[in-house]
Amino acid sequence: MSRRMRTYYYTVIGAIGGLLAWRVSDLLGLSFTSSLVVSELVVGGLIGLCIGLLIGATEGIVSRSPQRAARSAIVAGPLGLAAGAVGLLLGEAAFQLLGGEAIGRVLGWAVFGLLIGLAEGATGRTQMWKGALGGLLGGAVGGALIEVARRGYADPVMGKAAGLVLLGASVGAFIALITVLLSRAWLEVTSGKLKGAEFMLDKFIHAGGPSAIIGSDALKADIALPDPDISPQHALLSGAGTHVNLKDLSLGGTYVNNRRVEVAALADRQRIRLGNTELVYHERR
Amino acid sequence: MRTSIGWLRRSLWIGTLALMPWSFPLLQDTTGEAHVQITQIDRSRFPLIRVYLSATDDAGEPVPVAQEELQLYENGQPIQAESVSGAGEIGPLTTMLAIDISGSMAVAGKLQAAQAAAKAYIDQMQPSDQAGLIAFDVQTDYVQPLTSDRQALSEAVDGLKTRGDTAMFDALVEGTRLLESVPGRKAIIVLTDGMDNSSTATLEATIAQIGESGLSISAIGLGDSSKIGTFAGLNEARLESLAGQAGGVYSRTADAAELRQIYERLGRVLHSEYVISYTTAMTLRDGVNRTLDVRLASSAASASRAYNPGGVVPEVAQPASWPLFGLALAGLAALLLLPGLFRLGVGAARNLPVRTRRTTSRGKVRLNDEARPADHGRIRLH
Asked: Whole-prediction pTM value?
């Protein structure tokens, strides 16, 4: 999955989240409560659940790992629900503070996007601040698009539908874009089923931070590669501050630039081979 | 007996006449044309809207207005009011008195004048009214929480002492927050003698802080307006803008006696307001601003203010339709599958040269076939 395609999938899946949010937010009936606070909590929660769940599952979908997608969705869904409920309430407050209209809509949805992005950062491979920044920008652009759609369509139903779809797309697109643009280290798969896929390593490059396991088991490995010659947990990537270390955990062996290694400090553009799959390590300093 | 009945009739007649201006209020007043102002828009029970109005003369004194004279328009459309309450009927009034206690208030007995004026305001409170006291310099002290106890309020006012710089907008933001959950007509009356030089909040933030139930802010400038830009000067344009945007009035004085009159007049105006309640025909929270215009039927007096019903998610009249949802979902699913299909297409296109080769080899076969007749020929030759 090239970086461009990754952003594309996040955008389309975010849009599907927005579409579901539009349908689900109407299931309760219109004006189901006279309390604006209750309304924003419930509707925001539902929108957050739909968009958060789908954006959370995208990483698994793009790396063709249904188990990972399902596991991320289970965590990202409730987080999206909570973030959406709080986010829309705060968004409504910002909207009203600014006297509504376009600028209020932009800032209101930016607050919503920020919390959704934060939830995505907590569950996905994105760092939380990048998720939050992407969500903030995506929400702001999405808010502007909602206003454009509301004004552009004579039919308010179409306006709302288009608005929420565009919001979901925008939040998804910006979370992916920020992650990709600000990424400092990533692995590119250059052979096998996932050829072209990229795995962001930013969460794992800090010394003392979490480590990433590369393997064939979708649930036990952080970077899951569907290759029968790769062990369920084949190698370990851990940050050492200035560089990333690769440690072999397998019987089959791990190769860096065609030399079998036990432990290796990775450098930019080095080729790593596990089983029949080849990866290239990219680093941007 | 007949005499006593006649006396009773006469008393009733005189009493009715005495009450006439209030029972059948008239627009005409002796001091000039009436001015109307929308002081507070309460939309906390949307779609029920309560619009508070004041009608005053040129001197700022309340003038009686016949209820049928009040015409309200929402986005230019006339509104059929559910109820109109007249002077003295709008329910309990809640006032937050915000008093500047910055160092400069110690000069020329300004604080004493402010204390006397605030106490005069407290004295004219109705039994059901509430008031609270905020004192501010660089920090805001909530000196007296909201109470109907006039004695406690007066004692709190007496206890004020001067200190530090001025941070008025911070105090107003705090005052607005403290009044947020209070129902009914709410007002802040702020008195200051200097430029706001220490607030972290701004005028815009103060206006933005006014919540769904609304409130008005009236400002009183105490001092000499000719000294703008100095510590003792007043930024009148700012105070006027604040009061104008927050449904209040701005008054200025350098005189202790007049200060007292201003407070008393503000009290009279607040107690003489009208409230129009109506249910808006636009019941959806679409997040679009609506303009309220109030006009007096027999005069040119009018006032205008906007409110927003809320709705960062724009509410629409019809529920989402399933066919539209299905169609859009199919479209997005197609977009999701598109790269995969495209890759298959590219793969197929890459395979094309292989087919060409096969075609070429078929050509070779054909060539071989063509060669066969020669072989046959040879066979024939054999």
From this structure: 0.69
